[in-house]
Amino acid sequence: MSPNTQEGIVDRELRSPSYLQNGTTIRSWLLTTDHKRIGILYAMSITFFFFLGGIAATLIRLELISPTGLFLTNDEYNRAFTLHGIVMVWFFLVPSIPTTLGNFLLPMMIGAKDVAFPRLNLMSWYLFIAGGLLTVLALIAGGVDTGWTFYTPFSTLYSNSHVLLAAMGVFVVGFSSIATGVNFIATVHLLRAKGMTWMRLPLFGWAMYTTSLVMVLATPVLAMSLLLVVAERAFGLPIFDPRSGGDPLLFQHLFWFYSHPAVYIMVLPAFGVVSEIITCEARRRIFGYQFMVYAMVVIAVIGFMVWGHHMFVSGQSAFASLVFSFLSFVIAVPSAIKVFNWTGTLYRGQIRFSAPMLYALGFIGLFTIGGLTGLFLASIPIDVDLTDTYFVVAHFHYIMVGGSVSAFFGGLHFWWPKITGRMYSERLAQFAAISMFFGFNFTFFPQFIMGWMGMPRRYHLYAPEFQPWHVMSSMGAVVLAFGYAWPVFYLGWSLFKGQRAPDNPWDATGLEWQTRSPPPKENFDRTPVVTDGPYKYHPQDSTPHEVEQAQAPQVP
Amino acid sequence: MPPEASTLAPRIDHLMLILVGMSVLIVSLVSALLIVFSIRYRRGSTAKRGRLPEWVSREIEIGWTAATFFVALFIFWFAAALQGAQYKMPKNAMEVHVVAKQWMWKLEHPNGRREINALHVPVGVPVRLVMTSQDVIHSFFVPAFRIKQDVLPGRYTEAWFEAKEVGTYHLFCAEYCGTDHSKMTGGIVVMPRAAYARWSRGVDEHGTLAQQGAQLFRQLGCTGCHGQSARVRAPSLAGIFGRRQPMEGGGFKVADEEYIHDSILQPQKDVVAGYTPVMPSYQGIASEDDVVRLIAYLKTPNGGSVE
Amino acid sequence: MSSDIIIHEPFETAARQKVAVPFGVWSFLATECLFFGGIFLFYAYARWHGGEAFSAGAKETDIWFGSANTFILMTSSLTMAIAERATKEGLVRLARWMLWATIGFGLAFLVVKGFEYRKDISEHLIPGPHFKLEQGPAAQFWAFYWTVTVTHAIHLTIGLGVVGRLLWIDRRGDLAPHATTAEGTALYWHLVDIVWVILYPLLYLVGRP
Ligand code: HEA
Ligand code: HEA
Ligand code: CUA
Ligand SMILES: [Cu+2]
User: Fold this and answer.
1) Considering the entire predicted model, what is its pTM?
2) Residue A277: what pLDDT?
3) What is the pLDDT of residue A7?
4) Do C139 and A244 touch (CB under 8 A)?
5) Fold observed for domain A35-541
6) Which of A244, A247, A259, A304 is best to mutate for the C interface (most C CBs within 10 A)?
7) Which residues contact B195 (CB under 8 A, 6 or more apart)?
8) Are residues B175 and B247 located together in one domain of the fold?
């Protein structure tokens, strides 16, 4: 997969300007249809929301230091975790990798000039901003207190907070997701460069594709369930109200029909990022490419059939629970394929422990723990005990924070030179990655233990015997917060003072590396033609030992 | 490890320990591989590299896919077997009615004794909880018993436990229900049988649940239609509980708690064949507690046949 | 056949660009199906549990308005289909007329719907304190009626917008090269129709012998 763009040294002055220099007015950014610039717009927006959600997390962790709370009232605490959940899920993690790295890289990885519908792409960002504004408005107006799950009849009939605003915010941002999904599906189908067959697609491309499928098919159901909530709450139409024969469980079915697939929207992109990093930094072809592809497809499909595992104690029938439990175990198999294949990729590699690689290795470990505890929850008798306790909180933070957020940071570092054209300080980045890993475990491992002891979630006040664990968790959160805040400084510094990045600093094989850093507006100076599968890190017949030893740069 | 205070708890813990053991194994395996490979194949090391024979990849792939599948299947089967035990209601259980509301638990013993945010039960006696909510969804959670069940408005859910050890245990509301969700807690007091007998003989000036129900039956005017000498044509409620009733528009419904509950609060929902649906809804007139009493009364052998 | 399609970023070939819009719209239609799927699930549930009383609610809808609207919308589908074909064949005048007809029918639908709403409101068919029927399954039927018809009407209004956009493109004088846009618009318009065709029996025929 090496298009020959290196032919002859073209003078820097003669080449078209990079996408960053191609217009520098605010207007040229806000009206851009360049997928790379839209990726940057998204990156700035989700960073804002990440810190907003992080501030809520800080409040939560501070409050929970003492069993009687410190400075928030019960209502304020409820608003804090609701805001935290809503913002982190819909305004940070769901869009994170697809809309930033995905937007930036997907067209480049398949050798296209842009996504299939550039204007739709821009519109999706504006929808995102509109949804975000509604949510921020809900926050300013006084907040929401339903939990991110909006369970009825509490959300429709009993809550006296700004449910409508928040629900509309999530509704609107849902359409932004759908627009991105439609766009990516069309892009992958229609815009692959000559020679880029499906089975030559990098795994990141596959990850974007499967994620988009899930987005397009799951998100509308969320939109409808929120619409029904709005209809009942704003207009008093009896929909879920049990007093008119409605069923609150119907809402839960609709909600989880979206929200379980949504967890794969949050983790599949991370799979993609990690696959790219590991192959490059271990200089190995991915172990079992085809299995990796099928695993993602299977996860995306079966992901639609397990939603009922969130409702084991809700009063659904025992038989339904059994089926959902079974399918939840089935989904462990493709996940296992992924974990083992990443591990297998390391075998006989040339491993370099750069910051992105540290994030990726951390991802594998933490995702495995998160996934296995998911299996605890998928076992009905155990879930009956553990559901709605901190065990669940720990489970999903392991996958979403330890897993997906780590992968996002890994990807951000990995592609940073390509995106900005600057290098960052490797040492400082490694330090951030390591403190994130330890801070993370320190924060969330105690939560497994207290969950097992019976600490219910969404509890502002709690029984004193849980305090030691909460204190531990809050202390870990300090380290974790440092791990997240730290990159802001050295990455910010690199933006202005960092060394100029070469076109392909990691000596990677992806098409996105075969162009300039930062890339020109139309991505490639010469349209690439693909002749080979991805990850050609070691030529067929020579042992990588000989090749790499001679070629690979020996940085750290 | 939280106290194991019910007969179910040790069995759940057993399964839990198996899962923990298995997870530790898998995590160790994965991290051992990660670490060993990382060290052995770090860049610049002299370990032997080279191409993998084609078959290695495929065989290994199929091998670990199958292995994972069987392990998963095994755990599922193991857990499902336990699920059976969890859902099987013991027959001769003592029945306690639970009505949840924002933000308190109201518990009623069969003999009419009421408690708020506390439940006294005898040790070694199976207890069946019949639960409903007056407003939003709550969840009845006793960590020491390893039981949890959501409590829904407009329908009855059930759970059961048999306490094994005397003591006081946490009762939590585990489903988020608004402002004071975290204060919707209480205690389960497990007492020796003799002590429980003494306790439950204490004041109960209101009579048993069924007796209170009989009184309500008259007060709310049910007798006006369902009584022997009523002028309105309404079905007789004598011995109604557990009967299969023909429905207008075809089919049968068993008159269980849920059915009677709905018949009182949403009479339009299931109309008995051959009757005009003139029964008014008691929504807002009879509270969930009242409905619990009415049902207790209709369950007694000659319930519904008073004048 | 007008094959003088302008190739624009990011496409390299006309063939690819031609399928892009329909492809995107089809994916979006998959989304719409699941969107309406959610509320149909609610309908199925409420009807299953509500039994007779639910159908009793359905008896109150006005079948005349409903049928008239079905007729109007079916016709608009026809005009839209003609418009699309005409664009493809380069018959701009015919396409223009048919687009105007489509917009006319769409507006007529909304007007009829407006009259129907007025009647419903005057008969107190909005669930709430003054609801004409018993609260309960009948009210659930009407909750469904209002939510789904308003949602459908919004879809139709958006449909009017995209059809209007075609006319605007025509005004600029380059409708012919925009055959794929016309195709996408037609797909969307047909979806809005199909949803109505499903709604018609659910709303107006249930509860009638
Ligand atoms: C990115 C997010 C993400 C991901 C990927 C997952 C993945 C999984 N989740 Fe998780 N989950 C959440 C986010 C996520 N979850 C959230 C947010 C909630 C709470 C929502 C709320 O209530 O607020 C939740 C809640 C939740 C519940 C409900 C808990 C409750 O409320 O009672 C359950 C129950 O079954 C569950 C199960 C699973 C399973 C089986 C997987 C599987 O996909 C995991 C598969 C992975 C592995 C198994 C590890 C790798 C495998 C190996 C190393 C091989 C070895 C394995 C074997 C031999 C079997 N999850
Ligand atoms: C998707 C992503 C996501 C992410 C990234 C996080 C990140 C974090 N979450 Fe999140 N969490 C959820 C999703 C997420 N969470 C969801 C869905 C829920 C359920 C909500 C519900 O019940 O409805 C939840 C609930 C939840 C709870 C349970 C609340 C309860 O049930 O009562 C807790 C408690 O510890 C918690 C903690 C944290 C912490 C410490 C982080 C940390 O990783 C965050 C660290 C980041 C920062 C701290 C910001 C960056 C650092 C700085 C800005 C430095 C300086 C800051 C200050 C000095 C203010 N979360
Ligand atoms: Cu009641 Cu939470
Ligand atoms: Cu799930």
Assistant:
1) 0.89
2) 95
3) 43
4) yes
5) Cytochrome C Oxidase; Chain A (1.20.210)
6) A244
7) none
8) no
